[in-house]
Amino acid sequence: MTLEDLRILVAACEAGNLSSLARELRRTQSSISQHIARLEAELGVKLLERHARGVTPTAAGKALKDSALEGLDAIEVGIRRVRTMNQDEAQTLTITTGGTTVRHFMQGAVVKFKRAHPNVNLRFLPASSSRRCFEILRLSQADLGFVTTGDPVRGFSEKTVARQRLFLLVSKSDPLAKHKRVTLKDIAGIRYLGLSGTTTHHGAIEQAALEHGIQLKPEVVFDDFDTAKIFVELDLGQAIVPAVHAHNFERTGTVKAILITDLPPISIGWAFRRWQHLPAVAHEFVELMANDLSRMRGVTGLELV
Known about the structure:
- The protein is α/β, with parallel strands linked by helices.
- It has 3 domains: 3-82, Arc Repressor Mutant, subunit A (Orthogonal Bundle), CATH 1.10.10; 90-162 and 268-304, 3-Layer(aba) Sandwich (D-Maltodextrin-Binding Protein, domain 2); 166-264, D-Maltodextrin-Binding Protein, domain 2, CATH 3.40.190.
- Helix content is 44%, strand content 23%.
- It has a 6-stranded mixed β-sheet with strand order 4-3-5-13-6-14, with helices on both faces. The chain has a 6-stranded mixed β-sheet with strand order 8-12-7-11-9-10.
- The two termini are 43 Å apart.
């Protein structure tokens, strides 16, 4: 039994599919299966149940996975501490999140963090969706993920920090700009500028619209809200953006943000494996960002948790 065997077991239980895990790890499915088979042979028990649509852990598999995860996290903390004792290797805090999150939520925290910890490397891994953030966390490529919260993911915990209402973003010359609030029925015929299907907000927005009998079919597709603003400014159509983005975009004076009253808010926050195993600098960054968020209390449509 090796640490790699245990890492593969944990990842397999969380992924629920050996072929998708193999793609994530850039390995063959047979090599993944060999790690599981070695554990099963050594322990004399079945750890995974194979099904047509993937795998699920047996009772023994879940017990071993939970214990292995606790141990692997503790080992990772120990390795970090040893490495930071070596003056030639600086400590690194890695965060995965959407491409525009740093700009709209984290600028102040980044500046304060670097002033307090000039020798700590701060690394951001952009991801186009919360699902991709969890993939990065599963592979231990990041300490924290800033994601859309609310849908539990096996093997991870979430800490919701805020909920954001959704706003229609229009150009100043748009006839809808005269409104302070709109409903989904009011915007049924807009020239919708929509997020790509890989993004988390895409599913949340379009599913909520369908529940009201409204189909939002995008004429232009993009991957982030900053691009949406550019297209709106070019008068190519209207986009739907969350509260903080809407607030920041409207401050430029080129667009108008209108609350969509019957779209539910989107929850956002941190994702991680074990809170107690995060390095101290991760806890500090989370606290710095919480302080910055508290200063956004006046943003319309933003509810702090």
